[in-house]
Design goal:
- The protein is α/β, with parallel strands linked by helices and about 220 residues long.
- The chain has a single domain (about 10-210), classed as Rossmann fold (3-Layer(aba) Sandwich), CATH 3.40.50.
- It has 6 helices and 9 strands.
- The chain has helices at about 60-70, 80, 90-105, 140-145, 160-170, 195-210; strands at about 10, 15-20, 30-35, 70-75, 110-115, 155-160, 175-180, 185, 190-195.
- It has a 9-stranded mixed sheet with strand order 1-2-5-4-3-6-7-9-8, with helices on both faces.
- Strand 1 and strand 2 (about 15-20) form a beta hairpin.
- Helix 1 runs parallel beside helix 6 (about 195-210).
- It is globular and about 45 Å long.
- The relative contact order is 0.18.
């Protein structure tokens, strides 16, 4: 009998992949990152690995988390799969390229979660308001369970308000919005991430989490 093929798909529209073999103690906070538009340039449903380009602004933030011993978790909506623009194999190739480029820069991701469900999808992926799709918090909560994270003290960075809403709904206290404006929403602090001073503030917050967990 042939061996069963193990894939990162936990259901038709959800990808959960542990990257690398770094082991973390329980109850650490994490750095959650959106992918397209945050880690890499958003080319509108990226589907060609050769076209992937990193946004250099995020590299020092990931490096700070790696140095602090904080897990780095990517949480990405991928409605292009639901819409039939590409499939999970294309997502895997593109995501592999993103991780390769990050590794080339000496920074590392520890887990990737992706949700393909969307109301405009086809077949089993045609699901409206799926709990795993941001702005819902399902991907963050799932990562929290798998890595035994302290979600309250975790941080999220994204380029859409949906990323911030997902962070708030998962119980995080703050997030950084790429090219956005600062705001307070129901006790959740949105920090802007537009310039070097904003990036320095994010890095300081990440480093503080590392110090708090070593004390």
């Amino acid at each position: 009998m042939a061996d069963k093929v193990v894939t990162p798909l936990t259901e038709p529209g959800v990808w959960v992949e542990r990257i690398g073999d770094r082991v973390f103690p329980e109850r650490l906070p994490a750095l959650f990152l959106d992918r397209d538009g945050t880690i890499n340039v958003d080319t509108d449903y990226p589907s060609d690995p050769a076209e992937i380009e990193l946004r250099p602004q995020m590299l020092p933030a990931i490096a700070a988390a790696n140095h602090a011993g904080i897990p780095v978790v990517v949480v990405t909506n991928q409605s292009g799969i639901a819409r039939g623009y590409f499939d999970w194999s294309v997502f895997a190739a593109v995501n592999g390229r993103v991780l390769e480029l990050l590794n080339d820069q000496g920074v590392f991701v520890d887990m990737v979660l992706a949700c393909a469900y969307h109301e405009a999808g086809v077949g089993p992926l045609a699901v409206a308001d799926h709990p795993m799709r941001k702005p819902n918090p399902g991907m963050l909560i799932e990562a929290g369970k798998r890595l035994a994270l302290d979600l309250r003290h975790s941080l999220i960075v994204g380029d859409k308000l949906a990323d911030m809403h997902a962070g708030r709904r998962a119980g995080l206290a703050q997030g950084w919005l790429v090219d956005g404006e600062a705001a307070i929403q129901r006790g959740f602090a949105i920090r802007r991430l537009q310039d070097d001073d904003d990036l320095a503030g994010l890095i300081t917050a990440i480093e503080a989490l590392g110090r708090d967990n070593r004390s």
